[in-house]
Amino acid sequence: MTKPPKHLLAALMCGNLLEYFDFFIFAHFSFILAPKFYPSIGPVHDAVISGFFFAIGFLARPLGGYIFGRMADLHGRRKSLMFSVLGMAVPTLCIGLLPTYASVGIAAPIALIACRIIQGMCVGGEFTNGGVLLIESYGWKRAGTVAGLYNSAAGMGSLLAIACVTIVTRPGMPEWAWRAPFIAAACLGVVAYYLRSFVAESPEFKTETQTDSGLNFKLLSPQHRTFVYRAFCVGAVAGVFIWIPLSYTSFYMTKILGIPLHTAAKMTVLAVIAHNVCTAIFGWLSDRVGLQRTILTSCLVQLLLIYPAFNLLHDQYFAIFQLLTIIPAAMAYSVVHPLSSYQVPVLLRGRLSGFAFSAGISVFAGLTPMITSTLTQLMGGSLVGVVIYVATVAVIGGAALTKLFKEAPMTQKIDFRLVA
Length: 420
Known about the structure:
disordered C terminus; Growth Hormone, Chain: A; mainly alpha
């Protein structure tokens, strides 16, 4: 393994921060945008619509993960990352310029959904390919450390998005103020594209032959079915765990308890900061205790903490609830990149991990805000349904990953190349 290029990690972290700022800016504005792009009927209806607008971007990630992953496997990680970050800037700008439902009727939500689909596809290509490039450049002995730092940059993008929400929702701001962050985010996307132009290609990718790679690729062929299932489960577990402190707390405070949005935003900021720090720490620890043990331990810790944590939320100890739920989330999220591409041959990593991991995180992280908010509304503010939902994911996810890690899939390069 040659020495990785200087500043590679910093360049990818900056690009990841800016691209996730583009993506998260919508997540934190979802409750504000829903009534502007769809007529309001009632609290449950608004919660479902807000969750749908948020989820649609996640549900598009597997398609983007495969498209940009194929580009990464055939033409290089660097080129794929440059296209994905530039592609994110265009729909973000369009969201900032879209007319509302009051102006153009049903065309407004249709256009918004189209923009969210493109955003989701670009993030699906960005997240996995950036992690693959880092692991291939720094080596597996430091895979957890670099992946943990890379993932923490996404949280920094979320912090930047929260700051924008805090500013534009202050009293006295004009009605159109929500558009400014989207326009600014699009401009920052161009900056991210410039940063990516200095990123060097993965040395491991450059040493592999690209002849006849991937033209007849089949995701569920027996030779690498275990890899697909494993990456899907990793995405599912990490996705549910992370969106409880980052999304559900804010919903519960504002929609159930009627606490002002700016107060709820402080709790989200606390969660994101704790997540950034813990993700980096657990990523470093995973290189010493093992990648598999880290994510399996996260499922166990979630089961141990979920009941006392939600009791604290019911008693309005928001800060302690955030910190308790961040621990298993950060443990799982710190190792998603290494585990999604672990043992996968180089010329299949982009597509396989890009599609399978994105599918897991899309279905579960994308739908979690809508599921949890709807359960809470239908149960009159009770937290029992959400506790059961999270605990079920922890049990099933942990059991599935334990079984998949024990299996010994075929790893000969010649077999995988024939499949590709």
